[in-house]
Amino acid sequence: MSDAPRPLGADLARIAVFAALIVVLGTVMVPVPGGVPITGQTLGVMLAGLILGARRAPLAILVVLVLAAVGLPVLAGGRGGIGVFFGPTAGYLLGWLVGVVVIGLIAHHRRFTWWRAGIAAVIGGILVIYLFGIPIQALVTGVPIGPTALSSLVFLPGDLLKAVAATVLAVALRRAYPRAFPAQARAVHAV
Asked: How many CB atoms lie within 10 A of CB 145?
């Protein structure tokens, strides 16, 4: 298999597809008390990190965040505008950006395997996002961090299911269409 770099257009198309996927998954939303809804968007974030890798996935997240900043309704519940970066979800949005880098670094370090993808989705797609989201949510809402963290446990079962789904989808795509992945991940078949 060739290690030749992909054309820029192919990378831009993949970045755009994942940005669009994250936006579409925002239409899947369950409101909960505290101002941070349960959404499908974190599934898109996990998939972007697993498939695009640490270099390209943050660009997909940045596209979504820039579109939100200019006021387009691209976030869960049709939200957008600069105000979302000062509300209870601001830390989670920042966590997406850091989380996809972590996911990509873990998943594509050496061989891309199902267990490495699963660990990456849990660490980058849940732990990192919570590490950014919970403290900022606590700060914005004025609720102490302990109760905020405790109330965030409502998200955990769904996020674990999203991590499993992202892992299964990424491994299946890796086997069916390895060209979708960064060159180093394409070099060795998934185990």
From this structure: 12
* CATH for 154: 1.10.1760.20
Strands (E), the chain: 29-30, 38-39
Query: What burial letters (b/e) apply to 116-136, b meaning 16+ CB within 10 Å?
Result: bbbbbbbbbbbebbbebbbeb
Question: pTM of the prediction?
Answer: 0.89
Host H or E run for residue 56 = helix 41-69
* Residue 191 within a domain: no
Signed CA dihedral, 114, 51, 41, 97: sign only: positive
Q: In the chain, how many domains are there?
A: 1
Lookup: tokens for 56: 């390209």
Residue-by-residue pLDDT tens, the chain, 191 positions: 444 566 778 899 999 999 999 999 998 877 766 666 678 999 999 999 999 999 999 999 999 999 999 999 999 888 999 999 999 999 999 999 999 999 999 999 988 999 999 999 999 999 999 999 999 999 999 999 999 999 988 889 989 999 999 999 999 999 998 888 887 554 544 44
Asked whether residue 113 is domain-assigned, the answer is yes
Residue 80: both structure tokens together: 């957008």
